[in-house]
């Protein structure tokens, strides 16, 4: 590591005071210690230097690379495409998922979280981007979350399954 040097010039004696002038060596002028096109700035008052690093580098001599590409770490999974973008002044990314996957990092399938209630069976749609539930008898709705009752039709010719809410409404109308 290169450092600035400080030597003392000969002492000058004036009436009532003695002055010793420092002999400063500008390390930036001799050998630029800043790497990766960093700019060396010599600070005379402190006989030291600092490096003004190019974007993407940091450290005392600009030797540490900063990863500004948020996609460089491959955050998107399962064949997804990562697109770098800036949001509120900070680098971020967005994953464009391959068919069959979802979630911020494309690491989820629709049925992985088991959205179907009451022992319903989750089935993915063509392309695997969404799902539907095969509900057990007595349940309905997108996630098998609606309780249904089987009612006999007044003619007894067939029966129909109605959600509980409709059953209550029908009961109130018939009463």
How are the SSEs ordered, and which strands pair?
Blueprint: E1 6-14, E2 17-24, H1 27-30, E3 39-43, E4 48-52, E5 57-58, E6 64-65, E7 81-87, E8 90-96, E9 121-124, E10 131-134, E11 139-140, E12 146-152, E13 159-163, H2 164-174
Protein name: EGF-like domain-containing protein
Organism: Strongylus vulgaris (Blood worm)
GO molecular function, one term: calcium ion binding
Description of the structure:
The protein is mainly beta and 175 residues long. The chain is built from two helices and 13 strands. The chain is rod-shaped, with a radius of gyration of 37 Å. 13% of the residues are buried. Mean pLDDT is 75; it is low at 1-11, 151-163 and 166-175. It is a single-pass type I membrane protein. Its main location: membrane. It is found in: Cell membrane.
Short description:
This protein has 175 residues and is mainly β. Helix content is 9%, strand content 38%.
Features:
mainly beta; Laminin; three-stranded antiparallel β-sheet; 9% helix; rod-shaped; disordered C terminus; calcium ion binding; cell membrane
Main CATH class of the largest domain: Mainly Beta
Number of helices: 2
Query: Can you tell me the residue ranges where pLDDT is under 50 for at least 5 consecutive residues?
Result: 1-11, 151-163, 166-175
Helix content: under 10%
User: What is the residue-averaged pLDDT?
Assistant: 75
Termini, distance in Å? 94 Å
Strand count, sense and closure of the main sheet? 3 strands, antiparallel
Overall body shape: rod-shaped
Query: How much strand?
Result: 35-45%
* Order of strands across the main sheet: 11-12-13
Secondary-structure element pattern, one letter each: EEHEEEEEEEEEEEH
Number of domains: 3
CATH H-level superfamily title of the largest domain:
Laminin
CATH fold description of the largest domain = Laminin
- Going by CATH, the architecture of the largest domain would be Ribbon
Tally of DSSP β-strands: 13
Counting helices, strands and paired strands, the structural category is mainly beta
Give Rg in angstroms.
Answer: 37 Å
């Amino acid at each position: 590591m290169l450092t600035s040097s400080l030597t003392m010039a000969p002492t000058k004696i004036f009436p009532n005071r003695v002055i010793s002038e420092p002999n400063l060596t500008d390390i930036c002028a001799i050998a630029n210690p800043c790497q990766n096109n960093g700019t060396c700035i010599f600070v005379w008052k402190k006989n030291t230097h600092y490096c003004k690093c190019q974007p993407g580098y940091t450290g005392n001599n600009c030797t540490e690379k900063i990863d500004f590409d948020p996609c460089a770490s491959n955050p998107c999974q399962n064949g997804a495409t990562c697109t770098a973008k800036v949001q509120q002044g900070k680098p971020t990314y967005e994953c464009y998922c391959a068919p069959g996957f979802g979630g911020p990092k494309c690491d989820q399938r629709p049925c992985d979280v088991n959205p179907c209630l009451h022992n319903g069976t989750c089935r993915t749609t063509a392309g695997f981007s969404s799902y539907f539930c095969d509900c057990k008898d007595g349940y309905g709705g997108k996630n098998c979350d609606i309780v249904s009752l089987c009612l006999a039709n007044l003619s007894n010719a067939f029966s129909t399954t109605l959600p509980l809410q409709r059953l209550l409404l029908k009961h109130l109308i018939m009463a």
